[in-house]
Amino acid sequence: MDFLVKLAEGFIGMFQAGGEQFMGLVTGIIPLLVVLITFINALIHLIGEERINRLAEKSTKNIILRYTLFPVLAVFFLTNPMAYTFGKFLPEKQKPAFYDSAVSFVHPITGLFPHANPAELFVYMGIAAGITELGLSLGPLAVRYFIVGIIVILIRGIVTERLTLRMMNKKNTEVESQAS
Length: 180
Known about the structure:
The chain crosses the membrane at residues 22-44, 64-84, 142-159. With 180 residues, the protein is mostly helical.
């Protein structure tokens, strides 16, 4: 009989813990996200969509900016998954590398700018809970994630762009060989 009581208490306890977690989100992170998203949308309206488009076009001319600044701006302003639409400013041969960079940055940006990808908060907050339990500050962790994220997206962007160019050149060579 004790086994059934403990099983029932454990079962309902799991839902109670889930409810407490949900209430923590409702009173903590959700209002923050609403305010951040509102701020970003207001900033885009104040700056002007055309200016943001021009900045995007200029920042893609340099390979380092193309795979650092450009994905950071895309993820920050448009958030996940809309950030990938910034690829429209790139030629076809650079789109796969941009996507690789942008998709690789949606987690590292979360610690500093949670509005960019709220779905990733569960991962970050899980890690953050352990850091907080140790009595450490989350700020240095968030900054390190951000910096390492930028380094990783640069490497991934450059490597993916080179692989894409090789595959496109190989395909073009094969098509030319078959035409002869």
